[in-house]
Automatic annotation (TrEMBL):
Reactions performed catalytically: (S)-2,3,4,5-tetrahydrodipicolinate + NAD(+) + H2O = (2S,4S)-4-hydroxy-2,3,4,5-tetrahydrodipicolinate + NADH + H(+); (S)-2,3,4,5-tetrahydrodipicolinate + NADP(+) + H2O = (2S,4S)-4-hydroxy-2,3,4,5-tetrahydrodipicolinate + NADPH + H(+)
Family: Belongs to the DapB family.
Molecular function via GO: 4-hydroxy-tetrahydrodipicolinate reductase; NAD binding; NADP binding; oxidoreductase activity, acting on CH or CH2 groups, NAD or NADP as acceptor
PANTHER family xrefs: 4-HYDROXY-TETRAHYDRODIPICOLINATE REDUCTASE 1, CHLOROPLASTIC-RELATED, DIHYDRODIPICOLINATE REDUCTASE
Main location: cytoplasm
InterPro entries, per the entry: DapB_C (IPR022663), DapB_N (IPR000846), DapB_N_CS (IPR022664), DHDPR_bac (IPR023940), NAD(P)-bd_dom_sf (IPR036291)
Protein name: 4-hydroxy-tetrahydrodipicolinate reductase
NCBIfam families, alphabetized: dapB (TIGR00036)
Pathway: Amino-acid biosynthesis; L-lysine biosynthesis via DAP pathway; (S)-tetrahydrodipicolinate from L-aspartate: step 4/4
């Protein structure tokens, strides 16, 4: 049995993770902690993997503390920058356990992971590409970590294919063209009634390909969370993206 502690257990996602861990045949809940709880309770004696689902403002400190406690970590909180990721890498390099592992997922939904992967396959064939992400209005970051990751995936594929900048004659837009991530425009929608959705739009003269992933409830993320819990310890260091654990 894999002993799992959940950080952010009273949150919307954390509560679903607690239920998923309790229902799976190969995992058991060790600790369920939330804001204000002492993370030093989490240690290798009671925990194999800690799952961190909180908010971007505290996620880095939580992950660094868990690395210091010597447990492997699966992170679902978004809002990661290159600077924050470098701090995680540095902490792992200095950790007493040289095989310690941290996994960060821009998205745990299998559909979203595949959409990102398919976007990378298709991007080199199209002159233009844009990303639209749509979420509920309680989401605190924009654009989403998933959309940022997809933009980088598209940009990497375009660079590898030797493609230049995408056509865009817009001169002044007042921000309506969205945030530019690695040369790709990313648009964020926050609307009551939505959960988590992403569209990748790819276009050539006379044709368009749309790749869309929809997660209608938080239960859609749980198979991916459990997949990460089962695989994180076999991948020392920092791993980003659930695609690393899928047979793609």
């Amino acid at each position: 049995m894999i002993k799992v502690s959940v950080i952010g257990a009273k949150g919307r996602m954390g509560g679903n993770v607690v239920n998923a861990v309790n229902q799976a045949d190969d995992t058991e809940l060790a600790l369920a902690l939330d804001a204000g709880d002492d993370l030093t309770q989490v240690n290798p004696d009671n925990t194999d993997v800690a799952v961190e689902f909180t908010v971007p403002s505290v996620a880095l400190d939580n992950v660094l503390a868990l690395i210091g406690q010597g447990v492997d970590v699966v992170v679902g909180t978004t809002g990661w920058t290159d600077e924050k990721l470098d701090q995680v890498r540095k902490a792992l390099a200095e950790a007493p356990r040289k095989d310690q592992a941290v996994f960060i997922a821009p998205n745990f939904a299998i559909s979203a992971v595949l959409a990102d992967y398919f976007a990378g396959l298709a991007a080199k064939y199209f002159e233009s590409a844009e990303v639209v992400e749509l979420h509920h209005p309680n989401k605190v970051d924009a654009p989403s970590g998933t959309a940022i990751h997809t933009a980088h995936t598209i940009a990497d594929a375009r660079r590898a294919a030797g493609l230049g900048p995408m056509p865009d004659a817009t001169e002044t837009d007042g921000g309506s063209r969205g945030q530019v991530v690695d040369g790709v425009h990313v648009h964020a929608v926050r609307l009551r009634g939505l959960n988590a959705h992403e569209e990748v739009l790819l276009g050539n003269a006379g044709e368009q390909l749309t790749i869309r992933a929809d997660s209608f409830d938080r239960g859609s993320f749980m198979p991916g969370v459990l997949l990460a819990v089962r695989n994180v310890s076999a991948h020392p260091g920092l791993t980003i993206g659930l695609d690393k654990f899928l047979d793609l």
